[in-house]
Amino acid sequence: MAVGRAGVAPGRPGSGSSAVPSRPSMAEGAGAGPRLAELLAAGRRLWEEVETGTEPSSGAPAVQDKVRQGLDALQRAAAMVAQLDLFSENEELEEIASADLKYLLLPALLGALTLKQVDLSRRLEHLESARAHFWRFLKLCRSYRLGSFHLPPAAAASPPAEEDAGSPSPGGPAAAQPSLVAMASSRQAKIERYKQKKELENRLASMRTFVESGQADEDQIREFYILQIQKWINTSLEEIESIDQEMVILRSRGTAKQPSAPPHGTSRQVRAPLKPFILTRDAAQAKVFGAGYPGLPTMTVDDWYEQRRRQGVVSGQSAPQRTPGITDEELQKQQQEKKEEEDDEEALQKARNWDDWKDTHPRGYGNRQNVG
After folding, report:
1. SS (H, E, C) 47-98
2. Nearest of 112, 108, 42 to residue 73 by alpha carbon
3. Pairing of strands 298-300, 278-280
4. Residue 24 has what DSSP assignment?
5. Distance of CA 369 to CAs 121, 133, 286, 315, 372, Å?
6. Cα separation of 311 and 315, whole Å?
């Protein structure tokens, strides 16, 4: 990736150009420079300590404390930059003072530190916030023509679960060809970004000591900051790609874990559990089954229906109406006759013929197998 405009800015002493000179640092001229610079330096130092720390886990309290402190410092610095109106999409890169270029990195550093938070219950929220920071950084760099790259969409794409994944793809195997080309192109872009990142890191390492010691002139300082910005452009593109993949996984898990709602919004009524008991036909059987020790409580059919009716499980009409003095066999016969009366004529006639046949043929008629 070419540095592009990383040399002597037009209009500065010794450049020999008649272009518009770069304005002086608004942050330093406003009297807020040292404070703003200190906040940026503190936030960046804390990010480097978290990134290269020796803690065994990023969720350690000491690490998370540094993350919170770094985010606080960077957020305060970003608020000051917005108040001073340091950057605008309507200006050129040459119009930015060399001392102000480093503040372009604030959104990228905010995104990097936001990703270091380990609260799993808010992971999706942190991913969305980090992606928004990286995207604002890339958009600002794109407006200043700092590098040549494709700006990702402002919001992550919807998960595949929301799409019509069940419909067959038209075209069969031939339809998969564009996706293969896209995968190869993406892989090649990743390789190029990796090579550029390594080259930028080597150049920055050779210039860092010279710039931080105060021996570099303005042109070298400007080139140093532009190289840092271009390095973070590659980092932001990689982070957004990883964030989009993780968000798809988290959203699909959240959809799978949602409990299925009851039909028509009705909730099932909570009922008290039934205690074990012996169900008998009448009170006489209840006395017999309940005579043992230890024994389960007994309950007649009528008592069971009455208990369930009080609990609201069955209606009062669900219990069979029993006439006093009628046995269970007689009750069953009455119910059978009532049912037969409600049936069609053919079934009724068949039942009557069967009753007539039983009158003239006693039980066991025709069985001569065991007769000696």
Report:
1. HHHHHCCCCCCCCCHHHHHHHHHHHHHHHHHHHHHHHHCCCCCCCCHHHCCH
2. 42
3. parallel
4. P
5. 80, 96, 40, 51, 9
6. 10
* Residue 90, φ and ψ in degrees, nearest 5: -95, 0
The DSSP code for 280 is E
Grouping H, G, I as helix, E, B as strand and the rest as coil, residue 208 is helix
Question: How far is CA 173 from each of CA 167, 180, 186, 255, 326, rounded to the nearest angstrom?
Answer: 15, 11, 21, 31, 78
Angle among Cα 31, 37, 39 to the nearest 5 degrees reads 115
For 278-283, the CB contacts below 8 A with 24+ separation are 279/304, 281/328, 282/328
Rounding to the nearest 10 degrees, give the CA dihedral for residues 175, 178, 182, 185: 140
Of 287, 286, 292, 289, nearest in space to 304 by CA: 286
- Apex CA 93: angle with CA 89 and CA 96, to 5°? 90
pTM given for the model: 0.57
* CA distance linking residue 318 with residue 307, whole number of Å: 12
Does the pLDDT at position 172 exceed 50? no
**Which among 93, 107, 92 has a CA at the least distance from the CA of 139?**
107
Residue with tokens 């080309």: 181
Res 45: pLDDT: 94
Query: Is the predicted pLDDT of residue 274 greater than 70, yes or no?
Result: no
Report the pLDDT value the prediction gives residue 28, as an integer from 0 to 100: 56
Kindly tell me if the per-residue pLDDT of 161 is higher than 70. no
Dihedral sign for Cα 302, 306, 307, 313, please: positive
